[in-house]
Amino acid sequence: MYVVGAHVRCKVWAFHGSLVVCAVPRPDDGRYSGFLDCGRKIVKEEGVTALYKGSLNRMMVQAPLFGIALLAFEIQKDFLRKQ
């Protein structure tokens, strides 16, 4: 389940990064008119594999962070139950 969430987050982040590059899209400059347009153009110009750029790196960062957050939650829960 976590792997699916990480992949979805990577794709959304790829679109977000592309949309941020053209901060104020204008209709005449040929950039992106929105989120879905951005996705279509990325797939058309770079292929479907462009959606997976950075997925492995992102998961290598997110997995330990998730473990640390879960550990911190459990420690806090045990601490609060003792009081």
Structure description:
This protein is mainly α and 83 residues long. It has one domain (2-82). 72% of the residues lie in helices and 0% in strands. The protein is elongated, with a radius of gyration of 19 Å.
Strand content: under 5%
Query: With helices defined by DSSP (H or I, 4 residues minimum), what is the helix count?
Result: 3
The shape is: elongated
SS elements, strand count: 0
User: How many structural domains can be distinguished in the coordinates?
Assistant: 1
Radius of gyration of CA atoms, rounded to a whole number: 19 Å
The share of residues in helices is: over 70%
Averaging pLDDT over every residue, what do you get? 76
- Cα(first) to Cα(last) distance is 34 Å
Low-pLDDT stretches: none
Order of helices and strands: HHH
Describe the SSE topology.
Elements: H1 2-21, H2 35-46, H3 55-82
Helix pairs in contact: 1-2, 1-3
